[in-house]
Amino acid sequence: MDLVAHIAETFNSSARLKLAAATELAPHIARAVSLLSDCLLAGGKLLICGNGGSAADAQHFAAELVNRFEMERPGLAAIALTTDSSILTSIANDYDYSLVYAKQVAALGQAGDVLIAISTSGNSRNVVEAVQAAYGRDMRVLALTGSNRGLIGELLVADDVQISVPSEHTARIQEVHGLIVHCLCDGIDRVILGVE
Fold first, then answer.
1. Which stretches of the chain are assigned E, i.e. beta strand?
2. Would you state the pLDDT for residue 175?
3. Do β-strands 114-118 and 161-164 pair in parallel, antiparallel, or remain unpaired?
4. pTM passes above 0.85
5. Contact 117, 126 (CB under 8 A)
6. Cα–Cα distances in Å, from 195 out to 43, 68, 73, 157, 187?
7. 20-29 core/surface letters (b: 16 or more CB in 10 A; e: else)
8. Long-range contacts: 16-20, Cβ < 8 Å, 24+?
9. Domain 3-193, CATH 3.40.50.10490 — does that match?
10. pLDDT value at position 195?
11. Is the dihedral of CA 63, 64, 65, 68 positive or negative?
């Protein structure tokens, strides 16, 4: 195997997917920017969850919002539900791992808040449960998935936003999710700061 050629093809595969997805996803990302900006400007907060690489995306997204992205601005209210090991392990131990995010959403979510549910498969049980819990708190949902919209896609209602990366390859989906997170952060900053 030519490892150099394989690495180069991985870069090219990622780039091709991003270019192919740009036109398809841009309107959905713009809708998501509006959803999230409206929530934050109204005094709401964003609760973000996912598993594995998607948990890292949740933490990355929250960090960019609470601290800053590329422009100076006050911190924005965002919580990654993936970070508190005591909460996660107590829920998993006392109840079930499928409830680790749902119980946090039920405790922390308020009407007008937004849940950001990240799942490359669209079928992560604990993320599905979080979506259902969000509806119980009168929250809206932004879902980031792959081309298989999964159970999450079946749950979403008209006012929600789903951004489905047109791929079934987990690594490529996660790479595009990272770019989407940056587009969302940039868009939110532009809306909140009034930047053209």
1. 46-49, 78-80, 114-118, 140-145, 161-164
2. 97
3. unpaired
4. yes
5. no
6. 20, 15, 12, 31, 9
7. ebeeebeebb
8. 17/165, 17/166, 17/167, 17/172, 17/175, 17/176, 18/175, 18/176, 18/179, 20/166
9. yes
10. 84
11. positive
CB 162 within 8 A of CB 152: yes
Beta strands (DSSP E) in 78-159 are: 78-80, 114-118, 140-145
Of 73, 84, 75, nearest to 46 (Cα)?
A: 75
In the predicted model, residues of the chain with pLDDT beneath 50 are: none
Tokens 């669209």 correspond to 122
* Total length of the chain: 196
Instruction: Sketch the domain layout of the chain as residue ranges.
Output: 3-193
